[in-house]
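Teaching assistant here, posting this on the class forum so everyone can see the example we discussed in section. The complex has two components, and the goal was to see what a joint structure prediction looks like when all of them are supplied at once.
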Amino acid sequence: MPARKTTKQPNVSAEELKTYYRDMLLIRRFEEKAGQLYGMGLIGGFCHLYIGQEAVVVGLEAAAEEGDKRVTSYRDHGHMLACGMDPDGVMAELTGREGGYSKGKGGSMHMFSKEKHFYGGHGIVAAQVPLGAGLAFADKYLENGRVTFTYFGDGAANQGQVYEAFNMAALWKLPCVFVIENNQYAMGTSQQRSTSSPDIYHRGEAFGIPGDMVDGMDVLAVKAAGEKAVAHCRSGKGPYILEIKTYRYRGHSMSDPAKYRTREEVQKMRDERDPIEAVRSLLLTGKHATEDDLKAIDKEIKDVVNKSADFAKESPEPALEELWTDIYADVAPQTA
Amino acid sequence: MATEILMPALSPTMEEGTLAKWLVKEGDTVSSGDIMAEIETDKATMEFEAVDEGIVGKILVPEGTEGVKVNTAIAILVEEGEAVPEAGAAPASAAMPADLKSEEGRAPAAESAATAPEAPEVDETPDWPEGTALKQQTVREALRDAMAEEMRREPTVFLMGEEVAEYQGAYKISQGLLDEFGPKRVIDTPITEHGFAGIGVGAAFGGLNPIVEFMTFNFAMQAIDHIINSAAKTLYMSGGQMGAPITFRGPNGAAARVGAQHSQDYAAWYMQIPGLKVVMPYSASDAKGLLKTAIRDPNPVIFLENEILYGRSFDVPDVEDFTVPFGKARIWRQGTDVTIVSFGIGMTYALAAAEKLAEEGIDAEVIDLRTIRPMDTGAIIKSVMKTNRCVTVEEGWPQGSVGNYISSVLMQQAFDYLDAPVINCTGKDVPMPYAANLEKHALVTTDEVIEAVKQVTYR
């Protein structure tokens, strides 16, 4: 499939658009519900919501094939839902219950799915970048044609290990798409105040890694960029960098009052650039869907999310014996 | 259907807050994402958004109210045309979590104190049966053979590190491996410990069995986040779905005259981490048998070698597939008067001291732990039940040493058998000096071990 240069006249089917609408809406509603459960004390500790950034993972998952891998930071709920993990299991992990993906032992920041090739959920900023390069190393070693999506933020882009990973990924031509989700704030520090040059995607040039800047509020643009990057990696040319400009509507975590930016700035983004509204508008103006069709999708998503919240509330806390399990493996749980 | 909006918890520790300001009034329509109120916590003023769509039917807590408990109903949301129910009549949008269950369960790792134990079950089978053919081999050759054998056995095993391939190893441990296995499986890395440790762990997640060589473990401090946070904790954090079958190996501890930054024993550091296994061999047969076990182990293993031991020769069984299990100490010397416990290069002092003590009529039992985690504490306790005295020997620093842990185990599990306080012989509590005479004194010495044994035997 040729890479699309523009989304002005998207060559995209109604079904495809509806899928993106549904997938993005699922993340948004799921995260709103998570925020609500946090407010009620059902979710503890840190909880980093993905609201506003939905088009990034939904667009890139549309460019992925079965067996491709993904690894990300602590802002990971959207990535898990987008790669097909069960909302019930994700929400129940957020509430620390037995039915969670990690049996309640990982929490919001540490979840994994062998089945969906989701390799975490990592709480140390940028640690997932060499890990992602390592997953790609394994794929290259095994010659299985798989690609790894390694997600990190504009904040993580200032960690030294990112460049150690870039160097080796380029040196060994690892099939790794480095996805910089630039939401413009590293916790409370704007990119302007933390990053010497504004275009992070240029930073691969020093290692010979090509990079593109992508509009992360446009799911079709993200998908097109993803396809180009994946094709590059899969053809054996080595890593690719995508700097995807996005925006998080909510604070860094639930306990962040977000005083480092104005309410107007956030509202402007929501009003003018919202990725879900954009697809909604494409669906309606293109006569691909009626208001009623979209209402039906909204209802369907609401039901899925409510069910996940019910599951997460009803699932019991892990048995106390679980404190002592999964410290050492008798056999490696994953295989090549 | 009407829903109650509850006072939210806006931080991990918030129990109550001030409802500073309502940004909606009764009769307003709200939808998901609209800011409804400002709430002050002890840390900050936070905005509070609507999650459900509806009409603000009634505001139950006026703005300016202080000390509003989390989960108190603060407003009622209704649908269009719906009457506002009484407070408490509408369902809240979620329930509070069940109270934490009682804290019963397994006791912490420390066993109950000060009861005289039964003699522990200890596996004392020899590492090889009597009559096995032996060959003399250096620790260096034994380590190389272990890696080569495991790489022949399993195609997912590979070696990466600085100078491991074309240079044939900074300490020549990987000599010949590039020739046999090629550059795909014997990989020179750039000087980038944090990065290649992370890549190694990622490759292990991806189904490979990496051997990551650190030129020395001093440089692994740059990589320790991946060793601990990424490798050791993932099995637990994933609820058993994913782990890191990886071996981190390289020389550890003081070499000779390389100064403070290149001379440190990390046994006690890594010993503390659940999820890691920690191995520190002394002899060539242990280097070989334990490294093969480490490479096969499905967990992350820290394999601590020693540069000074690399060139020493020992008997190694000349058999097809020689392995040594983890968690099994080796008794190098039987004795009745005192138990000397050591591991790695510490064994050289322990054995030399035992020889000299024998000349003075003190019969020392010398135990080589070989693996620090899991630790064969049973072997130590069993020996101390016989000798009633214990001295530990290591090159690492005194505070929080491996010997400190052994002392605490003996106090808690063999108190009644001790006739003297356990003495920990360790390196001195100083960074390693460069000057030859000072360096010698900074390390533990055979004389100090002899002196400690005399103290605990009251000679």
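For the discussion questions: Residues 14-39 of chain A form the longest helix (26 residues). Confidence is low (pLDDT under 50) at residues 1-7 of chain A. Think about how each of these relates to the inputs above.
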